[in-house]
Amino acid sequence: MHTTTEESAIPVQTLRDFVSAALQSKGVPHDDAVTVATLMVEADIFGYGTHGVFRLRQYLARLDGGGCNPTPSVTVAQETIATGVIDGDDGLGHLAMSAARDLAIEKARAAGIGWVGVRRGNHAGPLALYVRTQAEAGLLGMAAAVGSANHVPPYGGTDLLLGTNPIAFSAPAAGADPFVFDMATTVAAMGKIKTLLQQGKEMPEGWMVGRDGKPLTDPARKSEGFLLPIGGPKGFGLSIAIGLMAGVLNGAAFGSDVVDFTNDTSSSTNTGMFVMALDPAAFGIGDDFAGSASRVFDEMRASDPLPGHDPVRLPGDGKTAAADARRSSGLVLNPALRRDLNVLAADCGLPAPFPDEPAKG
């Protein structure tokens, strides 16, 4: 039995190989499976556990159900010097989004800005995966997506017409950590609620309310209530803006057209997303951007903390060192997830990645 942190850790490459093999067992070609597995594990490496390997069950279910195309032809459907649209051909969302990110960076180098949308995508993991690369290359990045299921009503309403509609930003900075900010437009991402359900834990009050308007804290009852937007009507407005730019603009789903990718494994989700890259050189600042941003960041970190508060941190602080440590020592996954990966391994005809993990129950 795994009883210590060291014993619980799984080498990064071992986990990548397992995820890749699981995807290949559902007909995903080797190279695509490696690309997606690498990004999924990268999510866990950078601490986005709710959107990493935890999502494997959902991806395999959609591959089994036919809603996700195992052999997509990811193409550039339309482009100008600075813009483009990627058609993901209903394949795994990581493939379309990584293509969009790379094309946006290429266009930013040529035109100062690259904005690339995605249509016919699928869930692609955390948006941070598609903006950190820009910052590491000295560019600014932004990405957003229409959520993969509707869990939010319009502000003051009761019909589920909005998702968590996440957005992420990145910027270069001097030092080890770029600025990387990734958030849902709801108080909590649905992935966090699903992990609490898997672990048998309750939600804090303020994440969801029931149709009676009262707090909902049992994650098993999540379908009975609503996720709450950040900042009330402000979060509602931001979520709509993201839906327009990531959904409507790309000819992708928004509003009642959104398919719940967990409950419906056979339909095309037509998930809409976008990635942007911006080159500071186009504004005459170039390499000076990172230094200027870092000076302001340092001022913020030096701010005296309020009583009882930790020192000020910037989004992305400590991520590089934590990721390096995980790459070296392996990833520690919670027991419920380890058991689930063993079940998935059996379903795929693969050896259990955690052979010493006790059976559930």
TrEMBL record:
Enzyme's top EC category: oxidoreductase
GO molecular function: oxidoreductase activity
Keyword ATP-binding: no
Keywords per UniProt: Oxidoreductase
InterPro entries: Mal/L-sulf/L-lact_DH-like_ah (IPR043144), Mal/L-sulf/L-lact_DH-like_NADP (IPR043143), Mal/L-sulfo/L-lacto_DH-like_sf (IPR036111), Malate/L-lactate_DH-like (IPR003767)
Stretches for region Disordered: 304-326
Name of a matching Pfam family: Ldh_2
Family designation: Belongs to the LDH2/MDH2 oxidoreductase family.
Protein name as annotated: Putative oxidoreductase YjmC
Source organism (scientific name): Roseibium album
Gene: yjmC_1
